[in-house]
Design goal:
236 residues; alpha/beta; Rossmann fold; Dihydrodipicolinate Reductase, domain 2; 2 domains; six-stranded parallel beta sheet; four-stranded mixed beta sheet; 8 helices; elongated
């Protein structure tokens, strides 16, 4: 992984984890911008960010769209791990494309989670042959996580659903300091199948965000981790 000059928007736990891992890898962190100094993206300017190559954004759902658009309009590609702003994805996508910018958005930057989504899509296709099994998803995160269900759980439901008209119920648990656990299960009359991904450390998300930041340099368009990892179009 080559060194990249990044600016990080959001000085919470995830933003600091990204900054720490970037420093460990010899990257340059040009700025670590907190919410109080960046109202509606006002801190994301050429004067402030200088020769930054990629802006990495981990903030809050209400702040993410303005941050993304401000950075793109200033000429920087953006990697965002903020979830809960999906209702704004269509206009943000249009604005990024109109500006000939670049955006990587993902509900979860863990490489393992994105492989998990690919496995869930395959499982959903196979389980169409066994309608006696009912699917369900349980996701558990730390008590401070604001959105529920998680963006990853929504992507998992979309990937694993065997029929477009039949949704998979999602149970969300918020407790303690859990980085994130997602379980997809198929329950039959006499047996159960489970697929589980467990994050043991926040750095797994920081690692994926840095991977995406390196990948998106020099590109134009709107992408997900599916594109970054070249997983094709079948996963959500």
């Amino acid at each position: 992984m080559s060194a990249v000059r990044v600016a990080i928007v959001g000085d919470g736990k995830m933003g600091r984890a990204v900054a720490d891992l970037a420093h460990e890898r010899g990257w340059t962190v040009n700025a670590l911008i907190g919410i109080n100094e960046n109202e509606r993206g006002s801190g994301l300017t050429r004067d402030r960010l200088g020769d930054t190559e990629v802006v990495i954004e981990f903030t809050e759902p209400a702040a993410a769209p303005a941050n993304i658009l401000a950075a793109v309009r200033a000429g920087y590609p953006v990697v965002t791990g903020t979830t809960g702003w999906g209702h704004d994805l269509e206009p943000v996508t249009k604005a990024v494309l109109d500006a000939q910018g670049a955006l990587v958005h993902a509900p979860n930057f863990s490489v393992g989670v994105n492989l998990f989504l690919a496995l869930a899509a395959a499982a959903g296709r196979v389980m169409r042959r066994a309608p006696q099994f009912d699917a369900q998803i349980v996701e558990t995160h730390h008590a401070a996580k604001k959105d529920a269900p998680s963006g990853t759980a929504i992507a998992l439901e979309r990937a694993a659903s065997s029929e477009p008209t039949r949704s998979i119920p999602i149970t969300s648990v918020r407790t303690g300091h859990v980085p994130g656990t997602h379980e997809l299960s198929f329950d039959g009359p006499f047996e159960q199948i489970r697929l589980t991904h467990t994050a043991r450390d926040r750095r797994v998300f920081a690692d994926g965000a840095l991977y995406a930041a390196e990948w998106v340099r020099g590109r134009r368009g709107v992408f997900t981790m599916r594109d970054v990892l070249d997983l094709g179009s079948e996963t959500a």
